[in-house]
Amino acid sequence: xxxxxxxxxxxxxxxxxxxxxxxxxxxxxxxxxxxxxxxxxxxxxxxxxxxxxxxxxxxxxxxxxxxxxxxxxxxxxxxxxxxxxxxxxxxxxxxxxxxxxxxxxxxxxxxxxx
Length: 114
What we know:
CATH superfamily: DksA, coiled-coil domain
CATH class: Mainly Alpha
Number of helices: 5
Helix content: 55-70%
Radius of gyration: 16 Å
CATH architecture: Up-down Bundle
Largest sheet: none
Number of domains: 1
Distance between the termini: 32 Å
Structural class: mainly alpha
């Protein structure tokens, strides 16, 4: 089961028309939980530094922002909206969700926002 099948409803147990507790939703949740653990571990390492430099402070801000995005992705998953672009409502491509499981938008819509 891939994240894309959870997003696009291409498998029998995907989110499309199925409860958020299905197998596809569990797979997406696993990806998000792994991402969250990784970010928290890295944040813990940065916070353990005595006198962090500017780069460490910037990285800390990025990690904290990503953790907020991960929490928002959990909410979208619970609501059955995970994997749909927030702008165009088209499915976010599988590859994008595999790399950035908390992505809110497809690549095209994200590029237009920059």
